[in-house]
Amino acid sequence: MAQIFSKYSNTLARLSIIALAVLVISGIGLAYALQNSQYVTKQGIFVEQPVPFSHKHHGGDLKLDCRFCHSAVEDSAEAGMPTTEVCMGCHTQIWKNADVLKPIRDSYVQNKPISWWRVHDLPDFVYFNHSIHVAKGMGCVSCHGRVEDMPLTTQIKPLTMEWCLECHNHPEAYVRPNEWVTSSEEWSGEERARLAPKLIKDYHIQKRTDCYVCHR
Ligand code: HEC
Ligand code: HEC
Ligand code: HEC
Ligand code: HEC
Ligand code: HEC
Q1: 8 A C-beta contact, residue 38 and residue 156
Q2: Which entry of 30, 41, 110, 148 is 20 to 30 Å from 142 by CA?
């Protein structure tokens, strides 16, 4: 019987199947890369604030504890922002006539709070609560990075569901003693290995991965 398809078209068919497969795979790869790209997750973006506040100066150089300004972090869902009075506690004396601090002085005189723009912002359908994380020995540094090294504040973790679940599945890799929650110091592998199981027990930490924990 005569050959209907030449050898050539056979090769062509095979090639086009491979080409299609490559296209599909790279398409999936691209979609995945896009979904997880820093552009989509908003990592590393700087937000223009009313005053260019520096954590590096205030947290790093002056060694102010995070809770000095974010005082609600242990007791409520939101960490909270410092009132103008907290800033004026120092800035009635230090840099009291500086132009960059004019919005702070205006806010103080007019008794109107400063509106800081959000740097981290989860979608509304996600429930998050600071107090339980802090109470269970999750350090600021695990979720915000070394904030006291930042001249301007930026989000460095992706805040995706995958990211939340990584820790909810392995809290033992992150837990630290309560008195260190605002410290960015890394603690040694040996000490961590020794202490983590005890802390997991002491703080009654459970693996919370049910959907309703974060979507209620
Ligand atoms: C002197 C007061 C002060 C101290 C101390 C301080 N912060 Fe802040 N923090 C602010 C102000 C003001 C802002 C808003 C401006 C900005 O985003 O930088 C802010 C913003 C933030 C944000 C971004 C909030 C958002 O909108 O998502 C994080 C995260 C944060 N601080 C964490 C920390 C951590 C962690 C520490 C301790 C290492 C700390 N802060 C210490 C005053 C302070
Ligand atoms: C388990 C991760 C995690 C830990 C630990 C954590 N944060 Fe946050 N933080 C977040 C997330 C997520 C948001 C964004 C919340 C939102 O958009 O509703 C946020 C937002 C903030 C904000 C903006 C205001 C607010 O409450 O939404 C500040 C300020 C802040 N965190 C400071 C801190 C400080 C200080 C600590 C340590 C004492 C800390 N955070 C510990 C994850 C964390
Ligand atoms: C404990 C005292 C203290 C508090 C509280 C404080 N500051 Fe400052 N701030 C300083 C000092 C000291 C400097 C000078 C830093 C330098 O030049 O090294 C400074 C500098 C600044 C500057 C100039 C730019 C820079 O960082 O060098 C800005 C802007 C500023 N502070 C904003 C704020 C705001 C906003 C608050 C309230 C959320 C605040 N400060 C609370 C002590 C304080
Ligand atoms: C660094 C570790 C870590 C990360 C990252 C983390 N969590 Fe958690 N989360 C915990 C631990 C530990 C608990 C306490 C579990 C327990 O024992 O109940 C917890 C508890 C919670 C709870 C339960 C609160 C309650 O009142 O019942 C919610 C909601 C939650 N996390 C949301 C989130 C969301 C949303 C994210 C991501 C944006 C996130 N978490 C990221 C460690 C983490
Ligand atoms: C530890 C907290 C946490 C748990 C548990 C969790 N989610 Fe999520 N989920 C998130 C966060 C945070 C986002 C937002 C992610 C973003 O904006 O990139 C999200 C987003 C989503 C979305 C929107 C689409 C998307 O991927 O962005 C869906 C659908 C969803 N979750 C379903 C679920 C289901 C189903 C479960 C249970 C199997 C679950 N989630 C458990 C934190 C959680």
Answers
A1: no
A2: 30
Residues within a 6 A CB radius of ligand 3: 51-54, 57-58, 61-62, 64, 69, 82, 86-87, 89-91, 94-95, 100-101, 104
Burial of 172 (0-12, 13-18, 19+ CB in 10 A): middle
| Pocket-testing residue among 42, 56, 70, ligand 1, by greatest number of atoms within 8 A of Cβ | 70
pLDDT digits (tens, 9 = 90+) for 10-35: 655 665 655 656 555 665 555 556 56
Type of residue found at 115: S
End-to-end Cα spacing for the chain: 69
Residue 189: CB atoms within 10 Å = 8
Give tens-digit pLDDT for 47-58. 889 999 999 999
- Written as six digits, the tokens of 215 are 């979507």
